[in-house]
Amino acid sequence: MKNLIPRRRRNEVQRRGGEGYDPFEGFQRRMNELFEDFFGEMPAFRDTERFGAVVPRFEVAETDSAISVDAELPGMKEDDLELTLDGDVLTIAGEKQQESEDKKKNYYVSERSYGRFQRSIPLPDGVDTENIRANFKNGVLHVEVPKTEEYKSGRRTIDITTG
């Protein structure tokens, strides 16, 4: 009979809160352990994307001249991605289909990973949405949204009226 006390694997760091915190990570880890206990450790259950979904890492930053968005999308191709602008919301969506095979002595393993993601990023007022540029290279999507001159200066004069 399996032990009912939750166990922690070696070298496992337990995070609570903070940047990158995912409240479902512990739940997923525990479910994976239960499956491993019941079925034995299977390669498909290790280090997979969350619940079969693709969860790319995004970084949104501001420079003097633009708002930049970088998305890590390993294993994806440009044709798998869709970049849209609806009003002031930039949306990056994609679908990943990955297959790998590993042939050993007396067994055959085939792993497939499918998943769709969509991330919407609201853009601030004062950016030039007509001149957005996107580049995809080595599994990283880089999107640059230029700032308007008004946004860059950050300062403007406001008329004061009397009465």
Automatic annotation (TrEMBL):
<dbReference type="InterPro" id="IPR008978">
    <property type="entry name" value="HSP20-like_chaperone"/>
</dbReference>
<feature type="region of interest" description="Disordered">
    <location>
        <begin position="1"/>
        <end position="22"/>
    </location>
</feature>
<feature type="domain" description="SHSP">
    <location>
        <begin position="49"/>
        <end position="163"/>
    </location>
</feature>
<keyword id="KW-0346">Stress response</keyword>
<protein>
    <submittedName>
        <fullName>Heat shock protein Hsp20</fullName>
    </submittedName>
</protein>
<dbReference type="InterPro" id="IPR002068">
    <property type="entry name" value="A-crystallin/Hsp20_dom"/>
</dbReference>
<comment type="similarity">
    <text>Belongs to the small heat shock protein (HSP20) family.</text>
</comment>
<feature type="compositionally biased region" description="Basic residues">
    <location>
        <begin position="1"/>
        <end position="10"/>
    </location>
</feature>
<dbReference type="Pfam" id="PF00011">
    <property type="entry name" value="HSP20"/>
</dbReference>
<dbReference type="InterPro" id="IPR031107">
    <property type="entry name" value="Small_HSP"/>
</dbReference>
